[in-house]
Design goal:
Strand content: under 5%
Distance between the termini: 121 Å
Helix content: 55-70%
Largest sheet: 2 strands, antiparallel
Shape: elongated
Structural class: mainly alpha
Strand order of the largest sheet: 1-4
Number of helices: 49
Number of strands: 6
Length: about 950
């Protein structure tokens, strides 16, 4: 059978007949995109019946265009080709039957008017969810769905999924590719709904169909992502456009580059900048300015300078905005000379500096403490100016204030008034800020009252004043200032409360801080993360770690996500209170909550762990810093070295120090001090001395801690003359020496018997207005006792008590030892009783000294009784104590008692010296205790063999 010209359909086989290929008539379309050709009258009649009666037994019509019949006439199929794999409508929905509807039953008439057609389609699309019924209703309209109609409908729709379903349905119905306008409308709708799931497929379709992408659509898509803070998505969107050979709009690039600069992503912005050039866009000075600004602000000066060179090579002329940006940004990262260079260069290029130029340059010079240059430039700017620049005045006033030159700042205020320009609240706030930093609270309050004549205080003004009053601990004045603010119609915001809570905590006014926090609800001010963090830290620093943790839980219950600062505070304060297990739990809880630690937290945790004596765990944390992708900084190494020194691994400091230098860490004063202290404690005093010289050469002035470490190290190895020379150098450099340094020298001179020098240093210490502490006195007393100048020691002891320095256990131990050495046992026993009356518990050295003294004096009963009382109190006698008692009992002819102590000494694993064995052996022979004497003799022989072997080695 023949058919008219059109598009061929494949031959379809049935159980009863064969249908020849049929064609779709050119220029016409049926309800399902194909025509059933009348071949057999019966079949024609059945189809007609379906059309009229809408449902006949066994027939169903599928929206995809597939007919099915289970009648006695067999199966009839007409296959409709789907256009796209993106269709997600009801075409494949389980084969449910939907009756055929004709155009009259649904109540819609075919209209030629385009607007009416759009209204009809939109009315149907809005009648319910996409499905068979809705598709059937669209079929019944019998619209041609020309591009104008489709585009109009898509512009009206607000639901992306509905629009995509309609878009695909039209494809199937017309079997034609959509127009560019339809694609643009769909993409615009996706942009408005921020729905980009199918974007890549849509762009691919457009590319294959040869549809161009309009600039408006491109800009809309990228701008939507930017406004929604979806910058990675915006970047990927541009790359997708490039993938399908589209040229993204110029504004799409520039808008995204600007947004990336704001969030400090200079490298990504630079890659887009270069991509623009690759596809033929001519970049302008505005783009260069944006990129130079962000790189300079990040401190990446070389990258910023490279961009400026690139700009010159592209023959792009710099404008005044670019120069102003360079002056401001390079100056703020400390490149003051470079900022000056740009200032002079712009004038050489014929550009006249404006108010922004002068104000920026003045601000840079003030920040760099180059106040004289700033004043000269300010005067140069004002020379021929009729109208003063308020911003430059504010900057200069702030510069004077930061330098502490408040009289000059006040004069400049008056000068500004004299020129007819009333100082703004910004100028006054600048002065108040500087007064607060200098601690001049009363002066600030005076200026605040004068300010009211010229400018109305704003919320920032009151926050500045509240801040300084809180720092000074003037709580009542804080409340008065808050009330004054409310009377002025300004109410504390969360920033005000955060200032009050934080500063009061730091001023040791914790109760007031808690009261303000609890009253926030009454003031209709909700605490934020900063509020919680400040109070949690304040509670923890005051030892109230349980209350701090309770507040932490309230914070999480309120929906606030704890940040790394809160965890750092909790870990530090739990460790500080000696609750290291709770500190570990906090760290583990943080990792469970997927809160990634930063380098500050890891350094703090490592420091706490080392201070808690967990050396191996501290080492492991140092390795964890590297495992987490961080580079250990100078603080990390300083903590590690200090921890290792404290744990007795001082010899490792050399290796760690050079590892730190090889990594490129720039050592600061604290790092030098830590390493120098480590070298001194490990006996490498020469290395410490070299580092001291290096420190001075690198421009780091040694502090009292630096000198103290080296002086103490030299004194401990009897290099006292060098230590004293360093002591004099520190004084000549104006370093305020402390009691610790004086004590180190007193101890060093005293131990080598140079009592006169020790006395002179003690006198100098007191002439400087310093008060010797108990350690200083003990050093001098010990030196006198060792020189057997016990009477002089007793005079010093009395001076110590007269100067209100309470003696400790070590003080009494030194005196008791000295008195026993000169056989003044009764006087020693008096001091023994005195220390116990003061509540001082004798240590093992005191007991040993007293027991030995009593035994040597022949008071063996008292010595033995003291020994037993010491053990009964839980004391652990050392070898010296056992040996003293063995000798005392042996000399008192109590050989068997001495032998009992001898056996106990061996059982405890303490060393028995040769003299004690000989004295005991003689006593046992005299008492005819031959068996015990044989055992002691055997021990003596073993000791002799051991000593002989060690001498041979």
């Amino acid at each position: 059978m023949t058919a008219t010209a059109g598009v061929e359909l494949p031959m379809v086989m049935t159980s009863s007949c064969v249908f020849a290929p049929c064609r779709i008539f050119s220029g016409r379309s049926s309800s399902f995109g194909s025509i059933l050709v009348k071949i057999d009258t019966v079949v024609t009649r059945e189809v007609s019946t379906i059309s009229n009666k809408r449902a006949v037994s066994g027939w169903s019509v599928y929206p995809t265009g597939i007919f099915r019949s289970d009648t006695k006439h067999g199966n009839i199929y007409i296959i409709h080709k789907e256009f796209s794999s993106l269709h997600n409508g009801s075409s494949d929905m389980g084969g449910e039957a939907t009756p055929v509807r004709d155009g009259t039953n649904h109540g819609y008439q075919r209209k030629e008017d385009g607007k009416s057609g759009v209204d009809d389609v939109c009315r149907i699309l809005g009648s319910g969810p996409w499905g068979y019924a809705l598709e059937d209703a669209l079929y019944s309209l019998d619209q041609k769905h020309q591009p104008e109609l489709v585009n109009g409908v898509l512009k009206r729709l607000k639901d992306v999924n509905l629009a995509i379903n309609y878009f695909r349905w039209v494809e199937r119905k017309t079997n034609q590719v959509h127009s560019r306008e339809a694609y643009d409308s769909l993409l615009m709708l996706m942009a408005r709904n921020k729905s980009f799931d199918n974007l890549e497929q849509i762009l691919e379709e457009m590319s294959l169909a040869g549809c161009s992408l309009s600039n408006d659509t491109c800009i809309e898509l990228v701008t939507t992502c930017i406004n929604s803070r979806m910058l990675p998505e915006a970047f990927n969107l541009i790359q997708t456009m490039r993938k399908f050979k589209y040229r993204p709009a110029f504004s799409a690039y520039t808008n995204l580059i600007g947004a990336l600069a704001v969030v400090h992503e200079p490298d990504v912005a630079l890659s887009l900048f270069h991509q623009m050039q690759e596809i033929g866009y001519e970049v302008n000075v505005h783009l260069f300015t944006t990129l130079v600004r962000v790189f300079a602000k990040e401190g990446r000066v070389d990258a910023a300078l490279s961009l400026l060179d690139e700009m010159k090579s592209n023959s792009v002329e710099a404008d005044i905005v670019l120069y102003n940006v360079c002056i401001d940004c390079f100056g703020k990262v400390g490149k003051v000379d470079m900022a000056w260079k740009f200032f002079h260069e712009m004038k050489a290029q014929g550009l006249v500096p404006d108010d922004v130029t002068y104000s920026s340059m003045i601000g840079v010079l003030c920040k760099a403490n180059r106040l004289d240059e700033a004043v000269d430039l300010f005067e140069q700017m004002e020379l021929n100016r009729k109208v003063p620049c308020a911003y430059a005045y504010n900057t200069m006033i702030m510069g004077y204030g930061s330098a502490g030159k408040f009289d000059e700042a006040y004069k400049l205020l008056e000068r500004q008034k004299g020129k007819g320009c009333i100082p703004s609240v910004v100028a006054y706030n600048g002065i108040l800020t500087c007064l607060g930093k200098k601690g001049k609270v009363d002066e600030a309050l005076r200026i605040f009252e004068e300010m009211k004549k010229d400018a109305k205080p704003n919320l920032s003004t009151y926050n500045i004043l509240i801040d300084m009053l809180c720092r000074a601990g003037r709580v009542e004045a804080v409340y008065e200032m808050r009330d004054s603010m409310e009377r002025a119609g300004l109410f504390p915001n969360v920033l005000t409360v955060n200032i009050m809570v934080d500063r009061l905590c730091k001023a040791q006014k914790l109760n007031e801080a808690c009261r303000i926090f609890e009253s926030m609800g009454q003031k209709h001010c909700t605490p934020n993360e900063v509020t919680y963090c400040s109070l949690i830290d304040g509670l923890g620093r005051h030892g109230k770690v349980d209350e701090a943790y309770d507040l932490f839980e309230k914070m999480t219950d309120a929906g606030h996500i704890p940040n790394v600062v809160v965890y750092t505070s909790l870990i530090r304060n739990f460790f500080k209170c000696g609750r290291k297990e709770d500190g570990h739990k906090i760290y583990n809880e943080m990792t469970r909550r997927d809160c990634c630690p930063d380098l500050t937290l890891l350094n703090t945790y490592m420091d706490c762990v080392f201070k808690a004596g967990e050396t191996e765990r501290g080492r492991a944390l140092f390795e964890e810093i590297k495992a987490r992708g961080f580079t250990p900084d100078v603080q990390s190494y300083s903590i590690l070295i200090h921890g290792l020194v404290k744990a007795g691994f001082a010899r490792e400091t050399y290796e760690k120090f050079y590892a730190m230098k090889e990594q490129g860490c720039v050592l600061d004063t604290r790092a030098y001090n830590t390493v120098i202290d480590g070298f001194c404690k490990s006996g490498k005093v020469n290395k410490a001395y070299q580092l001291l010289e290096e420190m001075k050469a690198k421009g780091h002035p040694p502090t009292v801690v630096t000198y103290g470490s080296v002086i103490d190290g030299l004194a401990k190895i009897d290099r006292l003359d060098e230590a004293y020379m360093l002591f004099e150098e520190a004084k000549s450099r104006g370093v305020e020496l402390n009691v610790v340094i004086y004590s180190s020298l007193i101890d060093g001179f005293g131990k080598v018997g140079r009592i006169d020098e020790a006395y002179l240093i003690m006198e100098e210490l007191m002439q400087k207005g310093l008060t010797p502490n108990v350690y200083t006195w003990n050093c001098l007393l010990d030196a006198l006792v060792k020189a057997e100048e016990v009477n002089e020691a007793l005079v010093c002891f009395q001076s110590m008590k007269d100067l209100k320095c309470p003696p400790n256990t070590i003080t009494y131990s030194i005196l008791i030892n000295g008195l026993c050495r000169v056989r003044k046992f009764n006087k020693a026993f008096v001091f023994w009783q005195e220390m116990q009356k003061l509540g001082l518990n004798p240590n093992v050295i005191t007991y040993t000294t007293m027991i030995s003294g009593l035994a040597k004096a022949g008071n063996i009963m008292e010595a033995n009784g003291l020994f037993e009382r010491f053990k009964a109190k839980g004391g652990v006698p050392d070898s010296a104590c056992y040996n003293a008692l063995i000798e005392g009992l042996s000399n008192a002819n109590r050989a068997m008692d001495a032998y009992t102590i001898f056996e106990e000494t061996r059982l405890k694993g303490c060393i028995i010296n040769t003299k004690s064995c000989i004295v005991l052996l003689d006593a046992l022979h005299k008492a005819e205790c031959l068996e015990q004497a044989a055992i002691v003799g055997a021990v003596l022989r073993e000791m002799a063999k051991s000593q002989h072997a060690s001498r041979l080695l």
